[in-house]
Predict the 3D structure of the following.
Amino acid sequence: MKKLMMMAMMLIAAATTFAGDSDALKAILKAKTYADAEQLLKTNLSQLANDEEKAAAYNKLVDLAMDAFNGEDNKRLLQQPFDSKVLYANAYNALVNAIECDKYDQLPNAKGKIKPRYHNKNQERLNTVRIAVINGGVEYINNQDNKNAYDYFMLYLNSAKSSLFAGSDIIKTDANLGLASYYAGRAAILSEEYGKATAAFDEALNDTSAEIRDEAFRLKLYAMNNNQKTAADSAKYVADLKEMMVKYPHNDKVFGALGDALLQQEKTDELTALCNANPDQPLAGIYIGMIAMNDKKYEEAIAAFSKISPDHPSYLQVIFNRAVCKLNVAGEFQEKYANKNTGAMTPQNEAKFKELLNDARVDFETVRELDPDQNTVRWVVLLRNIYYNLGDEAKYKELENM
């Protein structure tokens, strides 16, 4: 009797082990189109018996998407009319589902062993599809469809990090990652999705192309800045910039963004320490000058601004700031030595006052040469007032209608 019971238990166990595919999986595997299979999987995902069935279901979607992709790609190769949107959509669907399939394919089976069934095949056949995905991103961004462009470029990037392509030599030598990262971030910015853009640019920051790297830094910092909505965001912005300074200590753009943020938030002690720690940074001297200028220490500011080379990209703003500081020095001198009732000064002080005004005039005239239409700084009123105080009526009238 005991022996018969044991045999019965073995039969039950065997029936459980070899029960076959669930009805949900059978329905998915019988589907003829990608749309039907996708709908069945979405509806019945929780009805699939185990991770192996889920891997099989997602692989069915890969098969159907690949069939449609290959059909359209063959037309392209034979130089026949083909639908690029259909081609790229099926490439996208194949890659998305292959990545999902691999997640389940890499999980331990009922015996605790990892025996992937689809990994090698999908890795091999999805290599070509990845190229189609990045090409789809290019087409979408050229057509100003920024949402789809972002999705396609990010799928290309994320596929490189997925278990499906882990250890693949093709990923190790993939020269398109930085480019995809750059365009994903750019597409997100054009959609005003600044949070997405901030994360998208990371691979582009280390691209082999200096042009891509520089633009990626500029746009990432632009996105980070525009992603500030609250005081907490601003605090995070500064913290993130500090982390970037550690990672990219010699990058002028990161230094400039951090310096601007600290200056705007009036964290002058931190900004001074940053400049002192990075004296070779081209912007360090400018920040030292601006801190002194804001503190009304005009002589210190003038000395700092005078060290900036005319070749510096911000030289126009620097020379304007120096001109303003010189004008303020002249103003302070006048206030100190002019008669409180009449405004008159002694001849000696009057000469000194005009000397200070002339010094400011030289800088303002340089600003005028560099920015004649006042596209960057508003210099007309200040220079006109200098001409008035110097008694230069002709030059004063010249600027009267500007």
